[in-house]
Design brief:
Rossmann fold, 50% helix, single chain, 17 helices, alpha/beta
Length: 388
Amino acid sequence: MDKSIKVAVIGAGTMGTGIAQLAAQAGHAVKLFDACADAVPKALGGLEKTFGKLVEKGKLTTDAARTILGRLVPSADLKDLAGSDLVIEAIVEDLPVKKKLFADLEALLPKDALLATNTSSLSVTAIAGACARPERVIGLHFFNPAPLLPLVEVVPGIVTDASVAADSMELMRTWGKTPVICKDTPGFIVNRVARPFYGEAIRIYEEGLADMVTIDHAMKSIGGFKMGPFELMDLIGNDINFAVTKSVFEAFFFDPRYRPSITQQRQVESGRLGRKSGRGYFDYAEGAVAASPSADQELLRDILSRILVMLINEAVEALHLGIASRDDLDLAMTKGVNYPKGLLKWADEKGLDLCLATLDGLQAEYGEDRYRPSPLLRRMVRERRTFY
C-alpha cells in the first residue's frame, strides 16, 4: 500500500478526526464524512487549530501544515466516497448501524476497496456479515488520541483474506503506528487483558481492604503505572469504562472473570462520570482537597500483587487461547495503555510459581471462578518453563 491510496473516514468525532489527521499526515488524500452536517466543518476547524499550535511550537512548518490540511476534503454525502480505496468507520458502537453502513458502502466502492471498522467492542466478523464480500473487511482499532498513541489492533474477521491483514499491518507501519495482530474475540487484546486493572481494584475497595487513594498509590509508587485504576477510570469516563466492562462480560457469556461492579454502576447512575463531570471517584472541583494514601508498605505490596497477578493471568489466558502472540500481547499493553512492562515478561520476573500460588490462594479463599488460573500458567509452572 502506498500514498496513492485514497482514504475515507466516516465519523467526525474525536476518534474519526484523529484517524483522518493520521492518514493526511501520512500523505494520503482523505475524505471525511459524518451523518451530522455540522460535525465535519467543526472537526476540520479543530484540526486547523491543532496544526496552528504545532506550527507555533516549531514542530511543523506553515507550508507543511497547509499541505496536510489540503489533503483533507469534507464530504456531505456518502456517495462522495465512491472512489475510495480504504474506508475506516469510527461511528457509534451499535452493530445494526455499522452493518447497514457497511452494506451501503459495499454498493458504492470498487470491488477491491478495503472496509475497516474502528470498533472496540463489537465483532468484526458480525460487521462483515453485512457484506457480500466479507473477506475485505478488517478491524483497525486505534486508541484515543489516535495521532499520539502508537498502538493499532489489527483484527481480521474469520473470513478476512490473509493479504488484507498483511496489507493493513504494513499500512499502519507506514503511518508510524505499532500494529499488533489479534483474533476477533471480545475486547481484542487491550480491553480484554486490562479488565482486572479496574475490576480487581474496585473489588479491593469494596472489601474495605484499602481506600481508592491508597490503591492508586500502590499501583503507581510500587507498580510503576503512570495512573492508578480509579484515576484512570475517571479520565476515561466511568460511563464508558462501565459500558466496555458490561460489553465484554456479556460477550463472554457472563464469565465471572469479567463481571461488572455495582460500585461503578452507582457512579454512573449518580452522574459521577469522572473528570468530564467534575466528580467521579475523586472530586475535581476547584479547591478540592485530596486525601493522603496509607504508607503501610505491606498493604501497598499486597494491593499491587493481587491486581498484577490478575492482569498476568488474563494475558496468559489470551496467549493460551491464541488471541495474539507473546510479543504482540506484551507490545499491546505497553504501547496501548502504557503499562510499565509487558505482562508476560513481568510474569517471568515475578515468578510463574508465585503468580500461580497467589491465584490458587485467592480462589481457595473466595471460592470464585473469577480467580481461576489459566491452564497454561499451571502447565508452565509444572514444566518449569518461562515465557522468555
